Amino acid sequence: KANRLLHPNNTEIKVNNEIIGGNKINIIAGPCSVENQKQILSIADDVKKYGAKFLRGGAFKPRTSPYSFQGLKLEGLELLKLAKQYTGLPIVTELTSLDFLDEYVDSVDIIQVGARNMQNYEMLKQLGKINKPILLKRGPSSTVEELLMSAEYILLGGNENVILCERGIRTFESYTRNTLDLSAIPVIKKLSHLPVIVDPSHATGRWWMVEPMALASIAAGADGLIIEVHNDPENALCDGNQSIKPDKLKQLMEKLKLIAKAV
Ligand code: PEP
Ligand code: MN
């Protein structure tokens, strides 16, 4: 069902008042992790001011090291809800365990499946039974075909609201955190009808590469971007190196408008 041949028209996913996969580019922005009330409210305010339509923020963080900050967990979710109340921005956050599915269904607008869980089939099957939009990230060592098969697990259960995300893959290049597979965008568009967005933050691991890769992604046909933004990246508890400051987001949004108009 993810197959373009069975479904020639692009899937448009309605989230609150926004449409993902339509003719507008959508920007999801916010910190890697929710750290405290002041941080999330201030960033939410800024990203809204500069034109982001969704707020991202990790509450449960899947960290490589068990000694790294693991997120504020349910307290983080409460803070995201507060930020939504203040700004009206729908919230996007990662689900790392089905134990919290009910809480997420109640309060999250787009449930993110992280790269590490792309092939967590039991999770995907459960997400197929709900009606919430799912942001499915490509695993760092997964092919586009495997990503589409994972999407299929969700679609097969009856949930047709799947957004795919290219977030960089593992290659021999080590200068960047991952290698952004820009070619995945036209491939996904050819094979599937689902919307695709790009995460230039995790793809590069470097804040100063976020803008050029974001522009390239939109030029290549992506339906939107998910970008890490932090008010104090030097002291961020997670992914500060790849987080842009709000004023940089403002600049990026201006340039994006030009590219979006051109393609
Ligand atoms: C994230 O979005 O914060 C994240 C952990 O991304 P990924 O699953 O792509 O590594
Ligand atoms: Mn991150």
UniProtKB/TrEMBL annotation:
Residue ranges occupied by any DAHP synthetase I/KDSA domain in the UniProt entry: 13-257
Enzyme class at the top of the EC tree: transferase
GO terms, biological process: aromatic amino acid family biosynthetic process
Highest taxon listed in the record's lineage: Bacteria
GO terms, molecular function: 3-deoxy-7-phosphoheptulonate synthase activity; aldehyde-lyase activity
This protein's UniProt keywords: Transferase
Keyword field contains Transferase: yes
E.C. numbers: 2.5.1.54
Entry protein name: 3-deoxy-7-phosphoheptulonate synthase
Gene: aroF
Location of this fragment in the whole protein: 71 to 333 of 337
